[in-house]
Structures are given as C-alpha cells and as structure tokens.
Amino acid sequence: MKKIISLFLAAAMLALLFTGCGKSKTPNKTETTANTIRFLNFKPEVAPVYERIAEAYKKETGKTLIVETAASGNYEQTLAAKMGTKEAPVLFQINGPKGYLNWKDYCADLKNTELYKHLKNKNLAVTSNGNVYGIPYVLEGYGIIYNKEITDKYFSLENKAVDFNSMDDVKSFEALKLLAEDMQKHAKELGIKGVFAATSLKTGEDWRWQTHLANIPVYYEFNKNNVDLTSDAVNKINFEYSDNFKNIFDLYINNSTVDKKILGSKIVDESMAEFALGECAMVQNGNWAWSQIKNISGNKVKAENIKYLPIYIGIDGEENQGLCLGTENFLAVNAKASEAEQKNAEDFMYWLFSSDTGKKFVVNDLGLITPFDTFGENEIPDDPLAKEVILWTNKENVTNIPWYFTVFPSQNFKNDFGAALLQYSQGSKSWDDVKKLFVEQWAEESK
Amino acid sequence: MEKSIKKYFPVFLLPALTAFAIVFLIPFLLGIFLSFTEFTTVDNAVWIGIKNYITAFTRDKNFLNALWFTTKFTLVSVITINVISFALALLLTRGIKGTKIFRTVFFMPNLIGGIVLGYIWNLLINAVLGIFGLDITYDAAYGFWGLVFLMNWQLIGYMMVIYIAGIQNVPSELIEAAQIDGASKPSVLRNVIIPMVMPSVTICLFLTITNSFKLFDQNLALTGGAPAKQTAMLALDIYNTFYGRIGYQGVGQAKAVVFFLIVAVIAFIQLRITGQKEEEA
Fold this sequence. Notes:
Helix content of chain A is 45%, strand content 14%. By secondary structure, chain A is an alpha/beta fold. Chain A has 2 domains: 30-139 and 327-376, Periplasmic binding protein-like II (D-Maltodextrin-Binding Protein, domain 2), CATH 3.40.190; 141-325 and 391-446, Periplasmic binding protein-like II (D-Maltodextrin-Binding Protein, domain 2), CATH 3.40.190.10. The N and C termini of chain A lie far apart (65 Å). Mean pLDDT of chain A is 88; it is low at 20-31. By secondary structure, chain B is an all-alpha fold. The model of chain B has no long low-confidence stretch (mean pLDDT 88). Chain B has helices spanning 2-34, 51-57, 61-91, 99-107, 114-130, 140-168, 172-180, 185-196, 198-213, 217-222, 234-244, 249-280, and strands at 37-38, 46-47. Chain B folds into 2 domains: 2-34, no CATH class; 53-280, MetI-like fold. Chain B is globular and about 70 Å long.
C-alpha cells in the first residue's frame, strides 16, 4: 500500500515538473514565424469580430492575425503580463500620453507608417520629441444622451414650468436645470423613475464622473490660462470651475432614479439599462454605449429617439458648446519585436483602415467613427449615437470639447476623486473638501 | 548500502529540488529583486535601491491605512471565529440529534469561492441597509463589520471541524476521572478539554490569522475598498498599487515583500507561543 502511495506521489511530482515544458509545445508555437501579427484587443465585446477579421486577413494576405483579448478593465494588467513573455503582442493599445509614459520602452516610432499619413488631424496622435508613438483609430463623443420620446411627452404637458417647447432650446445649464427639476416633479406623469439614470459611483464604475465629467471644467480652466498640454504646466490645477462641476453633479444626483445615498453600489450597466427600459429620460455617456442600450432585453427606447445634448455646466458662452470628442484608443507597435514583426503589424493596421474588406469590418462590425481620410463620407456606422456624434462634429459655430483627461495625472488621482464624489453624495464630505482633494491630489500625482 | 545512498542522494533529490526551485525559490527571489527596481515587465527592470520601500511608507498613505485596517480586522475576526467555532464544536460533540447534518451545514460556506461569497453578501447587506436608504459604501464601519461577518460565516465551519476532531480525541477516561474527582463542567472544560485540544487551537489560530491577514477575494468583492480605500486590506492595496498605478509596480512589489515579512513573523511567533502551550499540556 505504502509503495503505491509513494509511487503515485512521485508520479504527481513528475507531472508537475513537466507541465511547464508541455505548454511550450502548443500549436501556436509553430506559427510564430515572420508571418504572424499578435494583437492584444482592448474591447471584449468585439473579440468575435476580430476573429472574422483574422480569417479575412489570412485569405487576402496569407498572414496570420492572432488576437488575444483582455478582460474588461484589465488591459494594462494583461498587457504587463504578456509583455514579459515570448509571445508578447506586437500590436497593442495605449490610452494616451500617460499610457505612453508607462510603455515608452515598448512603443515604436510610427511617423513613417502609411496609416499615420492618412490621419486627418495629426494633433490627435500621441507624440514625443517629434516622434509618433500612438495612432488614434477611433473618434468617440460623449454628452447627455436623452430619450426624445420622454422629453416630447414632457413638452406636451399643460402644467410644465418651462417656457420653451423643444430640446433645441436647451442651450445652457440654466435651461437644463429648469427642465430637469420640473421633469423630476412630473416623473409620475411621464412614466419615469427619475430624469437622470443612476450616477454610478461604485469603485471602477465611476469613470463617467471622475474622468468624463471632470474633463469639462479642466478644459475650460486650461483653455482660459492657455496651458500647453505637452508642457509641465499641466502638473498644477486650481479647479477654478469646481462650482460648475458641482452644479451639474448636483443636478444629476438630485434628479435621479435612485436616492443619492446608495450610489456607491450602482454600476454603469444599471444606468444604461434604466435608460434602455425607459425608466429615465437622460444619461451621460458616449456613443460606445449604443451596443449596451441595444442589447438590453425588453428595451423600450427607439433608435430614432436617441439624441445628444452637450453637458452644460454654467459657463459664459456655453450656448456654442458641443459634445466632448476625442479618444483614449491609440494603436502602438511593440518596439522590442523583430523588424519583420513590426512591419507586419504596420501592414495590418493599414489594411484594416484602408482596404475595402477592412473598412467594411471597421464601419459595420466594429462600428467605429475613424479619424482617417481613407474613409468616405458615407462610410460611417449605422447607429444613432454615432450619427449624432457626426452631426455635432459638423455643426457650424459649435466648439466641441477635446478629451483633456488624457493628461489627468494618474488613474489613482481619478479613483481618489471618484471616491470623494461618492462621499460627497452620501453627505460625509463637504464640497470644499472634494475641491481641496482634487487640487492636492492632482499636484501630488503629477510629481 | 549506506554508502551508495550517500553517493546517489543528489540524483534522488534532484527532481524535488528542481521543482521546488522552479515553482517557489526562483519566483520568490525574483519578487524580492524586483522590489528594488523600477519595472513595467520583468525584462526592463532598473535597479533603484530602497526607493520603492520609502515610497510605500511615506508618499503612499494607503499602505499604512491598509495595515492598520487589516490588523483591526484580524484581531476581531480571529477572536470571534475561534470562540464561536469552539463553542459550536462543543455543542456538536454532545451527541445531539442531527449532529451530522449540522456539521455539514456549518461546513458548507467554506466550499464557496471568495468572490462569489463577497458578491452575495454585498447584495444581502445592501438589501438590509437599503431599508434605511444606505449601502455598504456609506461608512467604513459597515464595510468592516460586513467583512468580519463574512469571514466568520465562511471560516467557522472549517475551524469547527478541526475542533471537533480535537475534542473527540480527548480520552474519555480523563474526563470521567475528572468527573469522579468532583470537577464541575466548566472546570472539566478548562482543565481537561482545552489543554488536550491545544494542537487544534494552534492550527486554528494559525489558519485564521494568516487567512484574515491575507484576505483578498472577499475584500475585493464585498467593498472593493470603498469608501475611499478606507476598507482596503493589505492584499487589495498591493493589488491596486501593482496593477492600478502606472509606474508603481515596484512599489507594489516592495509592499508585497513587507507583507510577506509581516505574515511570516506573525505566524512564527504564534506557532512558538502555542507550541510551548502544547508541550506544557
């Protein structure tokens, strides 16, 4: 008996020993020739699309695209883990100037690539010392998404308190506040639980406020002071427009579907579900949210009723303000990969955004509004929010706000600010303290 | 015979040593090395001395907060878990009807994964607090007691099983002899049963202290550190530092080394103390 046991134990040990060796013999290994491109995909929801893209690419060029996908919110972690291995991605994503700093040893210069030459607005790229390290491949826009069906219903009420009759007349924070507060009073008649969807403030679910909403006051402050975004001047902020941030934030949390004390357990999915199910009239988010709205079962909101409103925060001249347009998605090529591999990755990038097959995938399946001149005017995705973004981009006399949050000092800063916003909503932190934290943490994290 | 064993012992030991080196020694030493460097991946580490350790204790205030929170949590949960599970073990060794069912039921929570548990308790606690229009992120105290409760719920069954085994091993002659000598029930418990189950106490204390100190999944799923990282324990703080902050991988690694030292020292001291008690008994 004892012999059998010790035999078994010895066998188990050996098995343990050799599992390490076994792994390297997987079929992938044989394909690590000069004809493969390893891509680490950022968005899990489009992973199946990339599989089809890989098939098509193999058919057209004979090269193999190996797509790996990081779990939602885990891109940096996955990238860090993969970069250390032999099968490191050759094509990957960085999220802007700050992301570049973390991966600068791994980002190859892309200024001579075909794709960069076709980038319409060169200012959007991630650059350093005249070299290009990240090419944006998508344009995204966010604002307040509203359900026109519900606002129309409100405007047809006899006892409404506002004197305008269409959302087109909402051109300032003042008007938005009047509208939202009166709509909240009539919530029952409108068949909604509240005007704004829940302000999701759970840790990791608060980016719509600590990043996106904060973008607007930061933009106005930097703009007013003529701050050069590539200089050290961004290391300091006074949060001059903190009261404006408070304006809109208060409006969100006080006229919402849920009580502001329980926002700490709300997540973005819930907010989008509330909007899709017609339980609220407005929600702040970007055009990427369309797939979420569309895929919620029992969704009641019609595509043609989904519209955008800029996020007004009560600043002089804001009637000309547009949506917040930009991106956090930049393609980068691994500088530590072999030259042949880098070339393959660059070829693939260009193919995806210029060939007919590639463009079809980009527009129809990935649903991207791209910043490249290889796309014609009709080659735009068929979803209501993307159409709205393009509509706002082309509006005359409208200033769209760029994404300044790519220069926010760190994720840690954003998380701390988000946590402070939650404490403010719960009533355990004063606004002055929130403001103080914003200023101090910004300086501290910029060191 | 003995000679040939001496001659060949490296050959026989080699597989075990290689396995030990690959799965433990190398990662461990590499981890310590990385804590003295600035790195994004293992390949591009640059030596910077003890700077990471200084940052962990000075600029990064979260680490000391997490250490304090974890210590409080460990103190409270170790006491509650061991007292309750020992009491349950006493109850369930008296031959009450349905003992086996009770034991199984109490043991079950231990079989559920930490993340799922944390998530379920998050829903439960929020449902209860929801009556008052609050949730678990409202106050760090809610998160603290939520974690203590969750930890108790999960570990009591496990510790109970160990204590039951210990109590059942107490020779009945000893107890009978004590009873004949006129010892009261509390005195039998204090002077016979407890000294005899000291080995179980050692194991249970060791398991609860290290488990409480290293708690991660439950912490992540139940509170995620909210509000404002006040309920983040050491493991979660290390995770957040390592993965959540650009350029802080080295600091996270330094924290992890400090964390290891703390756990090792506590476990060592605790084993020494209870080990002495065992010998006395």
